[in-house]
Specification:
185 residues, alpha+beta, SSo0622-like fold, 5-stranded antiparallel sheet, 42% helix, elongated
């Protein structure tokens, strides 16, 4: 299969993500890349806040709470309470940055995309594979730490307020990087 056939096949597939749809904050960037003859996206995330089972490997149903938006103190407290009731092991809080996987037509296209991403701050970006010229674009804004153990909250409300403030700042920063990349592509 040539690149255009691979692109058509990939873009005609049903969304297999656990949320079943595009993140709104990264949708325009993905659409712009998919309209370009040299690229197509294979997966994306605009950044998120999650409560997740603390596991060593991949597993099914690891998310106890997930949002791709900023949250309030009350929303986080409610999510923590529910997560602690539903899972008795260690639970992590994570605020993750944007990530985007893009298949590129050739090495020059991949190199150009990585350079543009790095120019606007997607510092953890690079070419993952030369077999299919796959690029991973990854931003750096991240928070991650244990928050519940044996159904007990490990931090106080003051720390939760700080978490919300810092996670919101980091999400806004990652969303700005998405817009900046969209502008220069």
């Amino acid at each position: 299969m040539n690149f255009q056939e691979q692109k058509q096949k990939q873009l005609s597939k049903a969304d297999k993500s656990s949320i079943g749809d595009w993140d709104e904050k990264i949708k325009n960037l993905c659409n712009k890349l998919n309209k370009n003859k040299n690229y197509y996206t294979t997966s994306s995330c605009a950044g998120r806040i999650v409560l997740i089972k603390s596991l060593d490997g991949k597993a099914k149903d690891v998310f106890l709470f997930r949002t791709h938006k900023k949250i309030s103190f009350n929303e986080l407290k409610k999510a923590i309470k529910k997560a602690g009731e539903n899972y008795k092991e260690l639970i992590d809080f994570q605020q993750t940055p944007c990530i985007l996987h893009v298949a590129c037509k050739d090495l020059n296209s991949a190199h150009d995309l990585v350079n543009k991403a790095k120019l606007v701050g997607w510092k953890h970006s690079g070419i993952m594979s030369l077999k299919r010229f796959m690029v991973e674009l990854h931003s750096t804004e991240k928070l991650e730490f244990p928050i519940i153990e044996n159904r007990k909250l490990l931090v106080n409300d003051d720390f939760l307020r700080l978490i919300i403030k810092q996670a919101s700042k980091r999400l806004e920063k990652t969303w700005k990087k998405i817009k900046n990349l969209e502008k220069i592509i």
